[in-house]
Amino acid sequence: MRDSVSAAILTGQTEQHLVKHPQLGCLLHKEVVIPLERLAASARAMGFDLAVASGFRSFERQCAIWNDKVTGRRAVLDDDGQPIELSQLDDWGKVQAILRWSALPGASRHHWGTDLDVYDRCGLSADYPSPQLTADECRPGGVFGDFHIWLDAALQAPHSDFRRPYAEDRGGVGCERWHISFRPVAEQYARALDKGILEEAVRRSDLLLGTVVLAHLDEIYDRFVTVSPD
Length: 230
Ligand SMILES: [Zn+2]
What we know:
Elements (H helix, E strand, L loop, with lengths): L6 H4 L7 E3 L6 E3 L3 H13 L4 E5 L4 H13 L19 H11 L13 E6 L14 H4 L6 H12 L5 E2 L15 E4 H10 L2 H9 L6 H6 L1 H9 L5
Antiparallel strand pairs: 1-2, 3-4, 4-6, 5-6
The structure holds zinc ion.
Zinc ion binds next to strand 4.
């Protein structure tokens, strides 16, 4: 069955499917609001204050992040969080280094409004005023360690509609335990996002290294866009 969701929604070029959440302060897919409020309420019952660091992100915004990484205005990090000297890599090497921690514009799950980066506001302090979204924060003993132990159990509950698409490092996108996804809608969108839609979005954009991306689109799609189903 062919899904009818539009290419504009899949690639972050419209906000028609979104609502602004008054308390969480982010744009979300309409169908995510109530399930997310339920998840936040169960977090609250356990003493956590579930907050959203990043909800919907537009194609334009993702493209600006990407281009800043290509030009060196924004750091590209290795697996240990250390900056990579991008000028020492060839163009395909640069693209792969960026894709490790930044989605290809058009292929970010944040375009859908179904995927969110979350943290526990109770873990913040004067010494630690904002989340960095790193592995250290999320592991036991980290500032959000207890929150993620609770979240592990919450996501594994049989009725949970949220999952972690980047729970494991499979050599493509790095492990991002802070990133959760509303499965009922996101799985439909993931099926609908084919290479043709991505190619068209990249072709029509100002993406730097766009020709390199297009030349390797099959591999990028397989390694960095698709995630394993549960
Ligand atoms: Zn994310």
